[in-house]
Backbone:
């Protein structure tokens, strides 16, 4: 029996009542649900998900930027199942085989020098751990290095530490005051920068980082954190040699560079890691999402041997943090099988190939008056929507466009494209197994949704 049919035969009204009474959904005001009810998703395969009515959608967001190998990989489920039968759990106060094997595999594929892995459950925890490692390292290198420099428009997770690093006002305001010692510099957002060239913008950003570090006092700054490609802040790829220049500034002042690859890691940009694509070697990396393709929760913070040895030198206390589920045997087993698939099928290469085709199709939408900018790399793309005067398109209009696309069977998302402005950038980040035909369909449906919006205005 079709699972969707089976669900349709049950009392979906009762299920919706349970959800309405007890589930707190993210990123929405529940008072709007009566007018805009959520779908009940029941099955998924490849790049598609199916709801309880039997309608199938291309999931052009890979869940939340994370189902890199696509849905329905039975071998991942089987790997987790076998591990649950053998050793369902034991904390990393001792050794478990999947965690050791996964750490070794990561050390093999991460950028050179990043070889030590701390496991957690999510990207948010991975970022919080990176923040704590940087501050612990700072106490050993001058004693007063505790400040962390992040960027406006960046997004770094749901913890208080991640919210403090995040540079989006609407994601911070509700929880302020946040952590002290966190500073922000401008994002390398070329579209609205006023810079004549990407190289000019990259140099401007590097000069700003250098000036902020000097003003604060290099002896007080522990780290600079950046997503190689900003994701939730509007899909902003780095211009020119931006990341290399930022790396040079960090090295000049003895400041650690943290690359937050929670979204960009594991093939999303067309290389295994965006750090490889842009030719930088970070001191610390944060990982999640594509690490297991979301089949089970897992995150990781990876550091250089130098940082690890500093915290574990004779007379030091090590890193005084523990995570109950970090390195969970089943999650690590699932991640190992996920990486086997990702590498064995060379999905980063598919991200390059299909991503180039998708990007070309999206760029052709630039002729529409509501499209201000199209930007991306590999299989992470943003389409920034604007009014006739170039101002950001309002949230209601963007929401309608997303609804039109969904009605035609494509799930997209939106994120902020302007500091403290509306979420006017449509985001596209499908599973890395997406075919050229599916990518063409995504662009076709988006064009139809945009033309329908224009016809109504």
Residues:
């Amino acid at each position: 029996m079709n699972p969707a049919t089976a669900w349709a035969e049950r009392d979906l009204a009762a299920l919706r009542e349970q959800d309405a009474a007890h589930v707190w959904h993210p990123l929405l005001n529940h008072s709007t649900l009566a007018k805009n009810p959520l779908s009940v998703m029941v099955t998924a395969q490849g790049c598609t998900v199916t709801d309880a009515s039997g309608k199938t959608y291309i999931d052009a967001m890979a869940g939340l930027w994370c189902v890199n190998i696509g849905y329905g990989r039975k071998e991942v489920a089987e790997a987790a199942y076998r591990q649950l039968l053998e050793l369902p759990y034991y904390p990393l106060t001792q050794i478990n085989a999947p965690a050791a094997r996964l750490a070794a595999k990561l050390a093999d594929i991460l950028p050179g020098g990043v070889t030590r892995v701390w496991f957690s459950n999510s990207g948010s925890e991975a970022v919080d751990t990176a923040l704590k490692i940087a501050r612990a390292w700072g106490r050993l290198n001058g004693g007063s290095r505790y400040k962390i420099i992040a960027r406006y428009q960046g997004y770094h997770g749901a913890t208080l530490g991640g919210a403090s690093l995040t540079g989006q006002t609407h994601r911070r305001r509700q929880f302020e005051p946040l952590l002290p010692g966190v500073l922000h510099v401008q994002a390398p957002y070329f579209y609205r920068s006023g810079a004549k060239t990407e190289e000019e913008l990259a140099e401007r950003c590097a000069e700003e980082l250098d000036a902020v570090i000097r003003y604060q006092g290099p002896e007080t700054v522990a780290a600079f954190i950046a997503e190689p490609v900003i994701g939730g802040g509007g899909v902003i790829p780095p211009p020119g040699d931006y990341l290399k220049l930022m790396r040079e500034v960090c090295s000049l002042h003895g400041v650690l560079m943290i690359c937050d690859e929670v979204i960009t890691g594991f093939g999303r940009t067309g290389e295994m890691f965006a750090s490889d694509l842009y030719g930088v070697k970070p001191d610390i990396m944060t990982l999640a999402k594509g690490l297991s393709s979301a089949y089970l929760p897992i995150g990781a913070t990876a550091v250089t041997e130098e940082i690890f040895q500093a915290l574990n030198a004779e007379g030091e206390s090590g890193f005084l943090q523990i995570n109950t589920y970090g390195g969970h045997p089943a999650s690590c087993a699932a991640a190992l099988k996920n990486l086997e698939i990702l590498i064995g099928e060379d999905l980063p290469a598919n991200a390059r190939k299909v991503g180039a085709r998708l990007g070309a199709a999206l760029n052709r939408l630039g002729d529409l008056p509501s499209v201000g900018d199209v930007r991306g790399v590999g299989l992470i793309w943003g389409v920034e929507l604007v009014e006739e005067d170039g101002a950001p398109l309002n949230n209601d209009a963007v929401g309608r466009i997303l609804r039109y696309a969904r009605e035609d069977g494509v799930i997209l998302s939106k994120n902020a494209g302007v500091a403290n402005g509306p979420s006017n950038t449509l985001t596209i980040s499908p599973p890395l197994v997406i075919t050229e035909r599916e990518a063409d369909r995504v662009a076709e449906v988006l064009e139809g949704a945009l033309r329908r919006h224009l016809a109504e205005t």
